[in-house]
Design brief:
This protein has 98 residues and is mainly alpha-helical. It has a domain of 57 residues: F1F0 ATP synthase subunit C (F1FO ATP Synthase, Up-down Bundle). Helix 2 runs antiparallel to helix 3.
C-alpha cells in the first residue's frame, strides 16, 4: 500500500512542479485542478474512514462480546473513525468554495 501511495505522489510531482512555477493558466484549467483536488479529498477521506471503521468496529464488537459493559466506551471510537469521512467532505467544500 505504501508503494502505491509513493508511486502516485511521485507521478504527480512533475505536475505540481510545473504548476508551482507560476505559469499563467486559463481559468478552466484551474477549475479542473480544483475539482480534482476536491474529489481526491473526499475519496481519500472515505477510504481512510472505511479502513478505520472496519478495524475499530471489529475490535469494539469483539470487546463487547467478552464484556458487555464496554459498549459505552467502545462505540464512541467508531464514531470518531467515521468523522474522518466528514473531514474529507469539509476539506472538499473549502477547496471548492473558498
Amino acid at each position: 500500500m505504501k508503494r502505491k501511495i509513493t508511486a502516485a505522489l511521485l507521478a504527480a510531482l512533475p505536475l505540481a512542479a510545473t504548476w508551482a512555477q507560476g505559469t499563467t493558466a486559463a481559468a478552466p484549467q484551474t477549475a479542473a485542478w480544483k475539482y480534482l483536488a476536491a474529489a481526491l479529498a473526499v475519496s481519500v477521506g472515505a477510504i481512510a474512514g472505511g479502513f478505520a471503521v472496519a478495524r475499530i468496529g471489529s475490535a469494539a464488537m469483539g470487546a463487547m462480546a467478552e464484556k458487555p459493559e464496554l459498549s459505552g466506551k467502545a462505540l464512541p471510537y467508531v464514531g470518531l473513525a467515521e468523522g474522518i469521512c466528514l473531514w474529507g467532505f469539509l476539506v472538499a467544500l473549502l477547496i471548492l468554495f473558498v
